[in-house]
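We were asked to recover a plausible sequence for a given structure. The inputs and outputs are reproduced exactly as logged, with field labels preserved.

PROBLEM: sequence recovery
POSITIONS: 188
GIVEN STRUCTURE:
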């Protein structure tokens, strides 16, 4: 692989629940019909002016906001992202959407094909949803929705901190599902 990679699509987006007690991720679920992956950094900025000019500048990465356009509703996805419970069978299913509850944490990894061959995995270990379950439903069109999230730095109980995000490029496409604990393990 070269030092420069050109990404051209989204192969898959996986999410896994993060358990704050065991400090591990659950079994990953692939988001069905993920139509993109749009991470956007949030920066804190400041500056010092003296005699009418800027003499010092500060810019610090605080978090990421992300958007994933997707379609459809899958109960396993909704459980990880929003903590929504469901019951029923293949004939009839009920989903309960509660108010006044704290949303769960999860990790996310996007698999992005690279023009030069292979895949870039771009992930965030510690995320929370920032929008409710909303959708755009119109006549004669598939239901579309944007799933939005915020990613922050993960500090574990032993004081270890994981980066806000991680990118990993492989010449060969890794198998799905991804081992989130392995992918986000602190670098040696």
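RECOVERED SEQUENCE:
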């Amino acid at each position: 692989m070269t030092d420069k990679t050109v990404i051209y699509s989204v192969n898959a987006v996986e999410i896994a629940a993060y358990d704050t007690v065991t400090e591990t991720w659950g079994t990953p679920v692939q988001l069905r019909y993920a139509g993109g992956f749009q991470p956007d950094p949030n920066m804190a900025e400041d500056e010092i002016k003296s005699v009418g000019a800027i003499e010092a500048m500060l810019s610090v990465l605080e978090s990421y906001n992300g958007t994933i356009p997707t379609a459809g509703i899958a109960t396993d996805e909704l459980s990880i992202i929003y903590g929504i419970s469901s019951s029923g069978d293949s004939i009839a299913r009920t989903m309960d959407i509660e108010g006044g509850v704290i949303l769960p944490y999860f990790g996310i990894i996007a698999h992005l094909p690279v023009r030069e061959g292979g895949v870039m995995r771009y992930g965030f270990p510690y995320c929370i949803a920032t929008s409710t379950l909303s959708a755009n439903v119109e006549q004669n069109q598939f239901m579309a929705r944007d799933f939005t999230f915020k990613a922050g730095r993960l500090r574990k109980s032993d004081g270890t901190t994981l980066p806000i995000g991680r990118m990993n490029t492989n010449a060969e496409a890794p198998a799905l599902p991804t081992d989130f604990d392995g992918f986000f393990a602190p670098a040696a």
